[in-house]
Amino acid sequence: MATVEDILLPDIGDFSDVEVIEILVAPGDRIEAEQSILSLESDKATIEIPSPLAGVIRALKVKIGDRVSQGDPLMSLETDGTGSEEASPEGTSAAEPRSARSGAGEPHGAPATSRTAAPLPASPPDPKSTAQRAPSRGETLSVVLPDIGDFTDIPVVEVLISPGDRIEVDQSLLTLESDKATMEIPSPNAGIVEEVTVKVGDTLNQGDLILTLRTDGEADTGAPIGSTAPMAANTAEELEAPPGPASSAKRAPGESERRPAPVLPRPEDMAAIAKGRKAHASPTVRRFARELGVDLNFVKGSGPKGRVLKDDVQGFVKQTLAQGAPTGAGAALPFALPAAPEIDFAKFGPVEVTELSRIKKLSGRHLHRCWLSVPHVTQFDEADITSLEDFRKAQKAQAAEKGIKLTFVPFLLKAVATALNRMPVLKASLTADGEGLVLKHFTHIGVAVDTPQGLVVPVVRDVDKKGIFALAAELSELGEKARAGKLLPGDMQGGCFSISSLGGIGGTAFTPIVNAPEVAILGVSRATTKPVWNGQSFEPRLMLPLSLSYDHRVVDGADGARFTSLLGALLGDLRQLLL
Q1: Region Disordered: which residues (predicted)?
Q2: Distance CA 207, CA 226 (A)
């Protein structure tokens, strides 16, 4: 029989007046038992609250920004009278943690289903079973996973320290994450990390070894080594309060004096106190970011207390794509792409491993960034260069008298420069923030040169101001320097457009990669004679395949088509270069 029940906030440990930061359901939603319904956040804890029952939500009784404590109504739920557990007596919600109902031996306030960004404090340890002497200065100690409540086999998602690091008391050592919990584990002592025994992907349980530490002496907390250090979220009053009903242990005389609560750090001190501390986000958002390969350290949170929300991650991805490839030294994309699997090819037959040339390593990394960060579109077209080729052959003898080898490329450079000056958007670049265009009043064009060491792109400057013979001579000189490995860095900088000509090798078309921060590149394949209809009959014409790749954030498809059409017209009739 269907009934409407109020879902109350269960016991979430030593937390009260906690802020609601996310509501994960809405009226009319059908939810299942143990499904997360909202997220709470205190100074040091992120807690996702599950539903104790399955049913249909009739009304929400809280909103984002409200502050709630144990027993406060969260929502009304129409149920079929069953849930994942029987409701506990005295009006306690069925989602109440097992540790709060199971009797002595469980830590007070360690929730079974609430999720915290840091472990809740354990009950005071039994001096007879866990007390150890205070460490001596320089002593090596084993730091183990403390009691973190009813969590087992929790994966390690971040390791925040390395061997040799100097750490302080309560500094975060690693981050654990279960299905709905993110927990940062603090250090009980200060000292130097000697060895880290866990790695990302390991699963841990209470008592598992985390690291060995060469201490500076007694810990500030006075806690026994390997026990749970008090968290900064606890106030002095909370630490001195009597233990809850789940624990019958009595506080040893004078213990409150020996275990003062740590001072709450200011936000500006967090970097110094918790070295390596990661971005503030819920487990759901962290998982979402990992699926997209986004490093949350680069994302600015818009939620309460700088919390990173799902919209922040999506906005960051959009902004990154809009900005294009980073151009600074050592810049890298924020996407963590999966590594390629390592394959032992030797098991299939004889192999030999040789190292890539320095040029291929450098150009390979740059082209990889460009391919990943620039939204490429490639426009294919053809240009009739029959007349141009006849003219070039007629001028070869005159060029030879001046010691110049006259190829097709100088003519192509001149035509491209004219087209760029008429359509300057194709020689522009995006500003660093991706919000504007840098329009260039010069026409420097890079020409890809194939060398034994790899592909290089020397730049021919002020192409629009030079004649065909001057361009041919400069191209020849740059090509010789490139093949001899004598190009200077300045010879390959400042280009606003690139040309990759494979006509001397072959091919019909290809998709060249935009050489960011440029926004377009022209690929040229081998010209072939084809029958072309002139309106009355077919006649043989020498047709040149053109492949224009461009950055679609800057160049629209219509502009790309207009550019190749204009270039085809210029190459088809050299007289248009004079207009």
Answers
A1: 70-139, 236-263
A2: 8
Is residue 188 one of the residues assigned to a domain? Answer: yes
Same domain, 87 and 189: no
162 and 87 belong to one structural domain: no
Residues 464 and 515 in one domain: yes
Least confident piece of the model among 311-315, 380-384, 513-517? 311-315
In a domain, 166, yes or no: yes
- As beta bridge partners, residue 213 has 141, 193
The domain that holds 463 is classified in CATH as 3.30.559.10
User: How close are the terminal C-alpha atoms of the chain, in Å?
Assistant: 87
Query: One-letter amino acid identity for 64?
Result: I
Residues written for the chain: 579
Do β-strands 520-524 and 497-501 pair in parallel, antiparallel, or remain unpaired? parallel
User: Are residue 411 and residue 507 in the same domain, yes or no?
Assistant: yes
The pLDDT of 302-325, averaged and rounded, is 78
Q: Are 300 and 286 in contact (CB under 8 A)?
A: no
- CB 134, CB 140: distance < 8 Å: no
Place of tokens 């956040």: 41
Number of domains in the chain: 3
3-state secondary structure of 571: helix
DSSP 325: S
Q: ∠ CA(271), CA(274), CA(275), 5° rounding?
A: 70
pLDDT at 467: 94
Catalytic residue among 366, 368, 376, 552: 552
Is there a single domain that holds both residue 96 and residue 134? no
| Domain interval for residue 539 | 359-578
List residues bridging with 451 in a β-sheet: 454
- Residue that is last in its domain, among 85, 100, 115: 100
pLDDT at 414: 96
Q: Count CB atoms within 10 A of the CB of residue 319.
A: 13
Residue 387 lies in a domain: yes
Give the torsion through C-alpha atoms of 108, 111, 115, 121, to 10 deg: 10
**Number of other residues whose CB lies within 10 A of the CB of residue 562:** 17
485 shares its domain with 380: yes
Whether 79 and 169 map to the same domain: the answer is no
- Quick one: tokens of 227? 């026990």
- Identify whether residues 74 and 189 lie together within a single domain: no
Contact between residue 265 and residue 43 where contact means Cβ atoms under 8 Å apart: no
Distance from C-alpha of 277 to C-alpha of 130, rounded to nearest angstrom? 29
Q: Are 521 and 515 in contact (CB under 8 A)?
A: yes
Q: Residue 137 domain-assigned? A: yes
Span 67-118, pLDDT tens digits:
998 889 999 988 865 444 433 434 344 334 333 333 333 333 333 333 444 4
Say how far apart CA 311 and CA 374 lie, in whole Å: 23
| pTM for the predicted model, two decimal places | 0.47
Domain boundary at 65, 100, 135, which?
A: 100
DSSP assignment of 478-510, as one string?
HHHHHHTT---GGGG---SEEEEE-TTT--S--
**Catalytic site residue 552?**
yes
pLDDT in tens, 424-439: 999 999 998 888 999 9
Concatenated DSSP letters of 348-390 = TS-----PPPHHHHHHHHHHHHHHHHS-EEEEEEEEE-HHHHH
Looking up residue 20, the CATH number of its domain turns out to be: 2.40.50.100
By three-state DSSP, how is residue 320 classified?
helix
Both tokens of 357, joined, read 């040339």
